[in-house]
Design a protein that fits this description.
The chain is α+β, with helices and mostly antiparallel strands and 515 residues long. The protein has helices spanning 18-32, 41-49, 123-131, 147-153, 195-202, 210-213, 218-238, 268-290, 306-315, 326-339, 341-355, 390-404, 412-445, and strands at residues 72-74, 81-84, 93-99, 105-112, 135-136, 141-142, 161-171, 177-188, 191-194, 248-254, 257-264, 295-299, 359-363, 452-461, 464-469, 475-480, 490-499, 504-510. It folds into three domains: 1-32 and 429-515, Nucleic acid-binding proteins (OB fold (Dihydrolipoamide Acetyltransferase, E2P)), CATH 2.40.50; 33-300 and 357-410, no CATH class; 306-355, no CATH class. The protein has 13 helices and 18 strands. Helix 1 packs antiparallel against helix 13, helix 7 crosses helix 8 (268-290) and helix 10 packs antiparallel against helix 11.
Length: 515
């Protein structure tokens, strides 16, 4: 039996059950990858018993909150704001800026105090530790924590007082972090903002979002934050951080029918948050090391397949050194983005694959972790998304132990075992997300069998030839007429068939003698 066939390959009624179809596929894949799609009865019972949010009264109420509150500062008056996706409800962090003498600026990142309500011995924590991360699929989100926690009781929601761990950084005009500190505080989100509208405003192509304009001084504060974020980014890139850009898409539903896969582009607002989170994660790693606590780091090792990256650059007329050099690689990437923006996302993806996946590793305070090759940083501990990632929740517990002068709640040996599990579970979650994304793409094209599309060849090897459609964020396999097609070549393809369950999309190359 062949992989493809001419003509429609899916039942007609599937078009009226898009969301249910993708949800069923997602739940099946979660189970196949060893992830839990639902919470246990014990976790549900614990959730019902929770009454208090992670706010002013919770410093000693939660299983890990200490009875004394004298070490929790009151920063609720600052113009804190969150910037996230339009539909995000699990708000992990807030940011605010404060000008200092000269050109220095104090940046504070408030991270939701999830540990205040989630005990390490609880069934809720056991579920979170097992899955390690929230899994975001095209039709359903499988949250790491129950939604009543992640979108309410521990979320930094607008207008609510919440407990937070504050990461404070004094940043010079050149992007150098001169001084840093970590402490606990009460905060209040003054404005829930969204990436797209903030980016349009920062870039001068749209008005100030209503929530931003409603808070006195917030517009100036965000412009100051943007200036600092750009300085942090420029410094990282001067040290060799890589300029990578891949095609990211988001499903658009009308009711339960999938109507489109919208391409998500980089923006100044996303970069602002990304730059602050990278800096905050560096401060966290160095703080724990200074306190002589072992910690879990996020690393991307020096590429094992550097020789293939060198060969890839040579194919584009560039020369890279024989040994891994992130600055030289970034210079090549920047040049290619300018020379060929159409193919840059595919080049970026190839480089990412050749670099190898990121992983979690446990590090003793007297040892040096491999660092993060892509970000060009040595110290990097995930800490800013404890509602969505378990390594961040673990790191938060380490930080609170260090602040209280207590022994770490996890031994080095425990952290070693957990780091390995985090890497494996994250890989499983990524595979679920990618596979459901492929099924969504197949579903979107199910009614368009026989149509032709302009495409770009993205892969050509003994394993097969692949092409990305230029008018939709969709990739499929060329199963007919692939002979002679090479990476980077623009071709025209005809859709032969789709298999929604397996996420297969099969094309035939047309033109140049191919039917």
């Amino acid at each position: 039996m062949t992989r493809h066939q001419d003509g429609p390959s899916q039942p007609e009624q599937i078009h009226h059950q898009h969301r249910a179809t993708l949800q069923r596929i997602a739940r099946r894949l979660m189970l196949e990858r060893g992830l839990l799609p639902t919470f246990s009865a014990a976790a549900t019972a614990e959730l019902r018993a929770l009454q208090t949010a992670a706010g002013p009264g919770a410093a000693g109420a939660g299983p890990n909150g200490d009875a004394a509150t004298h070490d929790v500062r009151d920063l609720t008056a600052l113009p804190w704001a969150s910037i996230d996706n339009d539909d995000s409800r699990d708000l992990d962090q807030l940011t605010v800026a404060e000008p200092l003498t000269g050109d220095d600026v104090r940046i504070r990142v408030a991270v939701a105090d999830v540990d205040a309500l989630v005990s390490p011995q609880s069934a809720i924590d056991a579920h979170a530790q097992h899955n390690t991360t929230s899994v975001y699929t095209a039709a359903e989100i499988f949250p790491m924590l129950p939604e009543r926690l992640s979108t309410d009781l521990t979320s930094l929601n607008a207008g609510e007082d919440r407990l937070a761990v504050i990461i404070e950084m004094d940043v010079a005009a050149d992007g150098t972090v001169r001084r840093s500190d970590i402490f606990r505080a009460r905060v209040r989100n003054q404005a829930k903002l969204a990436y797209n509208s903030v980016a349009d405003w920062l870039e001068g192509s749209g008005p100030a979002p209503q929530a931003l304009a409603a808070v006195e001084g917030l517009a100036d504060n965000l412009r100051l934050q943007d200036r600092v974020a750009q300085a942090l980014r420029a410094r990282r890139h001067s040290c060799g951080a890589l300029s990578l850009e891949t095609v990211q898409s988001k499903p658009r539903f009308e009711g339960d029918e999938l109507r489109d896969l919208a391409v998500e582009r980089p923006s100044r607002a996303k970069q602002l948050i990304e730059d602050f989170m990278i800096a905050a994660n560096g401060v966290t790693a160095r703080y724990l090391a200074a306190k002589r606590l072992p910690s879990i780091r996020r690393v991307v090792r020096s590429p094992k397949r550097w020789d293939r990256i060198v060969a890839l650059a040579r194919e584009h007329g560039a020369t890279l050194p024989a040994e891994p050099d992130s600055s030289a690689l970034d210079a090549f990437l920047v040049a290619r983005r300018t020379a060929d923006p159409l193919r840059f996302a595919d080049l970026s993806l190839a480089v990412i694959k050749l670099m190898g996946a990121g992983e979690y590793v446990a590090e003793r305070p007297d040892h040096e972790a491999p660092g993060h090759f892509g970000l060009a940083v040595r110290d990097y501990a995930h800490s800013t998304a404890p509602n969505r990632r378990y390594p961040d929740l673990l790191t938060q517990r380490l930080l609170k132990a260090a602040l209280a002068g207590q022994a770490p709640p996890y031994s080095f040996e425990e952290q070693e075992g957990l780091a390995k599990h985090f890497t494996e579970a994250e890989d499983a979650a990524n595979k679920v997300e990618r596979q459901v994304g492929k099924s969504a793409a197949a579903l979107l094209l199910a009614s368009r069998v026989g149509e032709q599309f302009p495409a770009l060849v993205t892969g050509a090897s003994d394993k097969g030839t692949w092409a990305r459609v230029l008018t939709l964020p969709v990739e499929g396999r060329i199963v007919r007429g692939f002979e002679g097609a090479d990476v980077g070549e623009q071709v025209r393809v005809r859709l032969l068939s789709v298999d929604v369950e397996r996420g297969f999309i099969d094309f035939a190359r047309v033109g140049n003698g191919h039917a």
